[in-house]
Amino acid sequence: MKPSRLLVFFPLLFLAVAASSPPPPPPHPSPRCKAWLVQSIPTDMPHLPRVPGVLSTGDVLRWLAGNATKSLDVIAQYWQFLAQPDNPKSGDYGFSAEDMEMFGAGEGRAVYKSLEDAADRKHSGFAPDFDQESADLAAGRPNVKNVTLLLGDWWGSGIVHAKVWISDGKDMYIGSANNDWKSLTQVKEVGIYLVDCPSIAKWIETYFGNLWTLSSLNSTAYTRTVWDKQWQVKRKVPCWSHFVHEKLRCRSPLPSSVVVHHVDGYPALADPFMLHIPIETPGSNLSSTSRHSSYLSFAPPELSFRRFQADEQGWVDTIKSVRFGGTVRISTMDWLGQSQYLRQIVFWPSLSSAVSEVIFSKRATVNILVAYWSHFLDGTDEYLKSILYSNILCHSSRRNNCKGRVNIKYYIVPGYEKTGAAKSNNNATGNLYPGFTRVNHGKYAVSDLRAHIGTSNLIWDYFYTTAGVSFGTYNPAIVAQLQEIFDADWNSPYAVTVEPLHTSA
Ligand SMILES: *[C@@H]1O[C@H](CO)[C@@H](O)[C@H](O)[C@H]1NC(C)=O
Ligand SMILES: *[C@@H]1O[C@H](CO)[C@@H](O)[C@H](O)[C@H]1NC(C)=O
Ligand SMILES: *[C@@H]1O[C@H](CO)[C@@H](O)[C@H](O)[C@H]1NC(C)=O
Ligand SMILES: *[C@@H]1O[C@H](CO)[C@@H](O)[C@H](O)[C@H]1NC(C)=O
Ligand SMILES: *[C@@H]1O[C@H](CO)[C@@H](O)[C@H](O)[C@H]1NC(C)=O
């Protein structure tokens, strides 16, 4: 029996689990790679139309565990599949058993059970509820290994924020859903389920291996504090980072990525690595067997390898992929044009600049959906209004003949203002839902040509100090269905227009 591994990443807590080493030999002839879009839709959203052919996150996670016979590798931020209504420290505290069933907590139990079964069966990896669940899964099972990786030791701050499951080196989930019961029935999530795709899985396993390697290295010996010329801050990075001057860089213990001489940091690649494999889409009527380019992107850039693009480029290029006169749709929980966790503040116009560029030059329409919820970040509204100001700039002179436009809406899941533990010190709080629920947590962008499904929030730190993975594709069936998912949200009564800055004429 091959050992499987479990990675637990802190500050904020992540957990990754890796499984057994040698990937299974591909069966002959290899079955075709297939993809389905996956959603979680919170309970009590009767006015949100369902998009046919889209799977549910709870089913997909149960199947990934259920189908694993050799390995299950999980990269997770934290673990909480089992609800904790009896734990006073939990946002689930104080709700009754009936409440929990109404909230859908049974879905989380079912996923946890399928993980336990997989762990009993063979080699599996995973991590626990704040991390108790992963420790419990590892306890007494020599085939399950767990490790802790502190990203803060390597980048000064940051966490493992990727949400990825890989089963038997061929089936995968990549998306916004955490290993949390709430991500199945109380938080709105979007991801992709890939089946029989070993040629995609092997690259994600490489990334997983990079996290694993990091956890076994002495970060003190392998980090430098440098002046980052691109972002104009002093910060800690791994010594092989391209933010370290070429002459002072160490040899990377990881598979290396493209070195471009005479540039600071990681510039956008003109020809990022693309996977040219046909992908069937049984969940869509548009399914085709032609080859379309797909790609993976990774954050932070020091953990990427070969010619894989950094995650920021994956987002920017998706926005810029829009056709002349076409539409870009972006859905995110957070949006800030700056950093969130660094001591020195980084100003980060990368995405808002791409949005303005396509409004001007391509006359594109850009629709952006941002979550409004009980942990809504200060500054969001100001940054969104600054993007809306592009409409005024675009129309500022007649010679622009402006036809492009950005529209922004807040996505408000009903009940968000009544979330948190039901009891505090034995007093009823009046909350109607557990803490950290009732929010749109998906992170994706889709133009008329290309779909990008990520795990990162749209804030500087997620691209430069935080572990994240995205899958993107030009497959027209996936592009069209992701647009449908967006439009169902955008046109629902839960989306409310963000007002522009009112300027005096
Ligand atoms: C495919 O088309 C049929 C007939 O128009 C429709 O009923 C069905 O919902 C469609 N399925 C998907 C996944 O769009
Ligand atoms: C394996 O995955 C398929 C879908 O990809 C699902 O229908 C099936 O139920 C899964 N098997 C198990 C044992 O979970
Ligand atoms: C791994 O699991 C074991 C067994 O439950 C536990 O004792 C240990 O604390 C866990 N370590 C990490 C890093 O989660
Ligand atoms: C880690 O590296 C530092 C600096 O090279 C060294 O002082 C320290 O002893 C190392 N720690 C371990 C556990 O090897
Ligand atoms: C609970 O409620 C009582 C009565 O309203 C109040 O006196 C007490 O301070 C509350 N306890 C806490 C911890 O809020």
Automatic annotation (TrEMBL):
UniProt keyword annotations, A-Z: Signal
Entries under SUPFAM superfamilies matching the protein: Phospholipase D/nuclease (SSF56024)
Residues annotated as domain PLD phosphodiesterase: 156-183, 436-462
Alphabetized PROSITE patterns for the sequence: PLD (PS50035)
One Gene Ontology term of the molecular function aspect: catalytic activity
Nuclease found in the keyword field: no
CDD domains, per the entry: PLDc_vPLD3_4_5_like_1, PLDc_vPLD3_4_5_like_2
Signal peptide coordinates: 1-20
Protein's name in the database: PLD phosphodiesterase domain-containing protein
